[in-house]
Design a protein that fits this description.
The complex is a heterodimer of chains A (462) and B (261). Chain A contains 16 helices and 18 strands. With 462 residues, chain A is an alpha/beta fold. Chain A folds into two domains: 246 residues, Mur-like, catalytic domain (UDP-N-acetylmuramoyl-L-alanine:D-glutamate ligase, 3-Layer(aba) Sandwich); 146 residues, Mur ligase, C-terminal domain (Protein-Tyrosine Phosphatase, Chain A). Chain A has a nine-stranded mixed β-sheet, with helices on both faces. Chain A has a seven-stranded mixed β-sheet with strand order 16-15-14-17-13-12-18. In chain A, strands 7-8 form a two-stranded antiparallel ribbon. Chain A is globular, with a radius of gyration of 22 Å. Chain B has 261 residues and is an alpha/beta fold. Chain B has one domain: 3-Layer(aba) Sandwich (Rossmann fold). Chain B is built from seven helices and twelve strands. In chain B, strands 2-1-3-4-12-11 form a six-stranded mixed β-sheet. The longest helix of chain B has 26 residues. Chain B is globular and about 65 Å long. The termini of chain B are far apart. The chains are: A alpha/beta (462), B alpha/beta (261). At the A-B interface, helix 14 of A face helix 1, helix 2, strand 7 and helix 7 of B. The complex binds zinc ion. Zinc ion binds next to loops of chain A. The site of zinc ion has 8 residues of chain A, from loops.
């Protein structure tokens, strides 16, 4: 094991010098040299390891848990850079250990790719598995969702019965995995609401009763296909969450939410400040809180850990460019975009928008998802003052807005981001922020451009 | 203009059959109706809902995933499909995308070899292939170049009773072999093109509107609209279909994959 550790750690240095970030390579090589390396490194953490998986929100949820662990005075081996395959996780432990393979941290906190859950359960001393949701995110990856659910189910099936799975009760596919656990421990989290919380989503994914194959009906929709559902035929319904948000107050653009959270037994009551906007972050915060409960962490660590949460690579950040305020909000799928539209509508003043749609590989090459976003509602409720459209598929975005009824006079198409941002800023009324809604690679491009121009100072991020 | 002219657009299975933004086809039809001075009336019908095919002018059905398709298949192979077939013989316009296009055919053979009966409205059969045909696609139709995005495992072969919608310029089309894309029978238009296809191709949208007007009101003069934004988007999509084709050619060159221009 010693030599594997040394080789692995040297390779990590080498990768860094050569500029390959978040690399799987050191882990892969070290695992060749010592196949049980990960188990031996991870086994040294006295509090074992927590796995976080699901299609969306695992990075944010893991970071929220990291914040809570920090407040509870615990140190963690955390794959913060998102190296979430088993080789990347091995690299993470290699980086955290000393040159003789000693690990001093209290606990492992690992975001795990859905396909690596089974391997992680086999090799790590798992104390809890947190599952966020199953969204069909990358539209190009057709039909793989059920396969993904199957992979995670297989991993949960390997879990010892006393190790709890922390599951989202409001996502039918996640809750359905409780069955894969049999008698195993399960903790559900969810939202108890009296009426729909989410923006109406015209192209919601349909979920089916696993017994009757009939579409579920929803008493309440909270976000996308999440909510309080039941089968009209056999009566199968959402499990009652052990930890539930019973009150949610959402803020406008750039603002987070406040939650009233209680346990099913009524013994526990928490007030949580979630500094990130959107219903998806309410779910991420609930998942993190439920995980903390399972680990037996103090409630004030949960409250303070979440309230002071910052993600260095978040969905949203605020910048100042030449004295003007720029708010960047990542958009990558219809459910998320609709949520952003709801947030903008709560902002009151008709905003200036810059929508940047790229279709590079990481964004998904097919841009048809724009037609599943409710821009009709955006035109009616957000009433943007001015929209600049940019990115490799700005032309498609412009057509989408035209058909949604946006006046041609308040739209400008500038395919190049390097021209779109200055143009949008120039037209901005004094003292008002520019809301930038980019896809993933457009966001990277935008940040890089601002950084290179050197006139931006990031003063807040979440 | 002689009073208000209405067109009834029936969106069939809006929830079950909506892949890759196919609902955009209904949005395009309604928006262009208004811009042409027509009054669109949109109705939706899911499984089991009463749907008046006889009264509709344009029926739109999007693509779906396997599971959804099975549910819809049961209806279309039965009584509902028969009524739809009667409306088709009566001249109603139908736009069927991807999975819906397959379901209007005679049958679909799944990867496991199971034969699912279709509505039998279009003379075609579809068989699941070993891999998915994915990418930007360009199709020549009556001197126009349609653009879209295809993503299907099914390989469709037309019988003598259906003629292809067009010839593939770049992409796979019906089966990646014979160069055909889609099928047309009477006023039924079936195609693999997502995109969604109508917003990307205003010419096709206006063609459907004109056919429906002709049938309902006996005349179909439509003004030309300002389609400069659509034209710009089409140029980008065409470039991408050329690029996807070049990429496939390069990988075929390396001797690994299928090559279809
Ligand atoms: Zn049921």
């Amino acid at each position: 094991m010693r030599s594997a550790v040394v080789v692995g750690k040297l390779l990590i240095r080498l990768c860094r010098v050569l500029g390959f970030g978040g690399s799987n390579l050191p882990g892969r090589v070290a695992r060749r040299l010592c196949p049980d390396l990960l188990a031996r490194l991870a086994g040294q953490c006295p509090r074992g390891a927590v796995l976080v998986t699901g299609t969306n929100g695992k990075t944010t949820t893991a970071r929220m848990i990291a914040g809570i662990l920090g407040r509870a005075g615990l140190t963690a081996v955390h794959n913060r850079t998102g190296a979430n395959l088993i080789t990347g996780i091995t690299s993470t432990y290699l980086e955290a250990c000393d040159w003789s393979g000693g690990v001093r941290q209290d606990i492992g906190l690992l975001e795990v790719d859905e396909a690596s859950v089974a391997a992680a359960v086999r090799e790590l001393p798992v104390r809890a598995v947190v599952l966020t949701n199953f969204f069909r995110d990358q539209l190009d990856r057709f039909g793989e969702l059920e396969h993904t659910v199957g992979l995670v189910g297989k991993g949960l099936g390997l879990l010892p019965p006393d190790v709890p799975a922390v599951l989202n009760a409001d996502d039918p596919l996640v809750a359905g995995l409780a069955r894969a656990r049999g008698e195993g421990a399960t903790v559900f989290y969810g939202i108890e609401a009296e009426s729909d919380l989410s923006e109406p989503h015209p192209a919601r994914e349909v979920r089916y009763c696993s017994r009757c194959e009939l579409p579920y009906r929803y008493r309440v929709v909270t976000y996308g296909h999440l909510g309080d559902y039941h089968c009209p035929d056999c009566g199968e319904r959402r499990p009652r969450p052990e930890l539930a948000a019973t009150g949610i107050w959402q803020g406008g653009p750039g603002q987070g939410s406040r939650l009233a959270v209680r346990s099913a037994s009524g013994e526990l009551e928490l007030e949580l400040e979630v500094p990130l906007p959107g219903m998806y972050n309410v779910y991420n915060a609930l998942a993190a809180a439920a995980c903390a409960g399972v680990l037996g962490l103090p409630t004030d660590a949960v409250e303070r850990g979440l309230a002071t949460f910052t993600a260095s690579f978040g969905r949203m950040e605020r910048l100042r460019v030449d004295g003007q305020e720029v708010l960047i909000i990542l958009v990558k799928n219809p459910a998320g975009f609709n949520e952003v539209i709801g947030m903008l509508a709560r902002g009151g003043v008709p905003p200036d928008l810059l929508i940047a749609i790229n279709n590079r590989y990481a964004d998904g090459t097919d841009v048809s998802w724009l037609w599943d976003v409710d821009f009709e509602r955006m035109v009616a409720t957000v009433r943007p003052r001015r929209v600049t459209v940019s990115g490799t598929r700005s032309a498609d975005m412009a057509v989408r807005l035209k058909y949604a009824g946006l006046e041609a006079s308040c739209m400008e198409v500038r395919p190049r981001l390097s021209e779109a941002l200055p143009a949008a800023l120039k037209a901005l009324p004094p003292g008002r922020p520019l809301h930038v809604l980019p896809t993933y690679t457009a966001m990277l491009e935008l940040r890089e451009g601002i950084r290179r121009a050197g006139h931006a100072r990031r003063y807040w991020e979440a | 203009m002689a009073g208000e002219r209405r067109l009834r657009i029936l969106h069939l299975y809006p929830e079950l059959m909506n892949l890759y933004g196919d609902r955009g086809n209904v949005l395009a039809l309604t928006a262009r109706c208004r811009w042409h001075g027509l009054t669109p009336v949109v109705e939706q019908a899911g499984p089991g809902d009463a749907a008046d095919f006889g009264n509709a002018d344009i029926i739109v059905i999007g693509g779906g995933q396997d599971r959804e398709q099975r549910l819809v298949c049961r209806e279309l192979a039965g009584d509902r499909g028969k009524r739809l077939g009667e409306a088709v013989e009566d001249g109603v316009c139908v736009l069927a995308i991807c999975g819906a296009y397959q379901l209007l055919g005679r049958h679909y053979v799944t990867a496991a070899g199971e034969v699912l009966p279709g509505a039998g409205i279009l003379d075609l059969v579809t068989e699941a292939g070993p891999d998915r045909l994915v990418g930007h696609v360009a199709v020549e139709v009556d001197g126009h170049l349609l653009t879209g995005f295809e993503n299907h495992a099914g390989r469709t072969t037309l019988g003598p009773g259906a003629r292809p919608l067009g010839r593939v310029r770049w992409g796979f089309g019906n089966n990646g072999r014979d160069g055909t894309e889609g099928a047309v029978y009477r006023n039924v238009w079936g195609t693999y093109l997502h995109g969604p296809v109508l917003p990307a191709n205003p010419w096709l949208t206006d063609r459907l509107l004109a056919l429906a007007l002709e049938r309902r009101y006996g005349e179909a003069a439509l003004e030309r609209l300002d389609d400069r934004l659509e034209a710009a988007a089409r140029r980008v999509a065409l470039r991408e279909s050329r690029r996807d084709a070049a990429r496939r050619m390069a990988s075929a060159w390396r001797g690994r994959k299928r090559w279809t221009a």
